[in-house]
């Protein structure tokens, strides 16, 4: 199979996948080396730079995505007047889970300061959060984000989440605020 055939075969496979496909899986299916597949993916990735779609590695695998430059057109088409965005409460809960996982529902509620029962059901239903075991001390169910969460955010792994420190107040500033409240 020559390079063009490998690339065309990869394109055909990626057109029908529901989730990202790894280089190893592609190599096994095409009976090629991982290196040959990686080279073909690199060529394909650059060949789509000026298109309405792109080829990206996300969550440990490759998949076609719409070009971010055209997100407003895609959003308008997909939503078609529907409101499918997460609420502020759902986004906050999802953030706590993403950064503290695995975490219990009670811990998320304690961090947010509100009951998160309904929000958790929404996140589970949408496939963004899943159960990941039990907490040894309390027996509470622990939750984590799913691979679908990584895919929707365009992340390769949880390590790609942005750091929180730049968004937190510095300790000196926090001390000043607390001092001003006691005066």
UniProtKB/TrEMBL annotation:
Keyword tags: Cell cycle, Cell division, Chromosome partition, Cytoplasm
Species name: freshwater metagenome
PANTHER family: SEGREGATION AND CONDENSATION PROTEIN B
Coiled coil: none
Gene3D superfamilies in the cross-refs: Winged helix-like DNA-binding domain superfamily/Winged helix DNA-binding domain (1.10.10.10)
Keyword Cell division belongs to the record: yes
SUPFAM superfamilies: Winged helix' DNA-binding domain
Protein name as catalogued: Unannotated protein
GO biological processes: cell division; chromosome separation
């Amino acid at each position: 199979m020559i390079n063009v055939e490998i690339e065309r075969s990869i394109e055909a496979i990626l057109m029908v996948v529901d989730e990202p496909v790894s280089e190893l899986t592609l190599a096994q299916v095409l009976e090629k080396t991982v290196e040959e597949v990686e080279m073909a993916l690199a060529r394909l990735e650059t060949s789509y730079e000026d298109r309405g779609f792109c080829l990206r590695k996300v969550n440990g695998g490759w998949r076609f995505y719409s070009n971010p430059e055209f997100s407003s057109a895609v959003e308008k088409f997909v939503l078609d007047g529907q409101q499918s965005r997460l609420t502020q409460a759902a986004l906050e809960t999802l953030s706590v889970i993403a950064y503290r996982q695995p975490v219990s529902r009670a811990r998320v509620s304690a961090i947010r300061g509100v009951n998160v029962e309904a929000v958790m059901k929404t996140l589970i239903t949408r496939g963004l959060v899943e159960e990941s075991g039990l907490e040894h001390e309390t027996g509470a169910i622990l939750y984590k984000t799913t691979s679908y969460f990584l895919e929707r955010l365009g992340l390769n792994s949880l390590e790609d989440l942005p750091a929180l420190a730049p968004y937190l107040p510095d300790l000196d500033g926090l001390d000043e605020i607390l001092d001003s409240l006691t005066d």
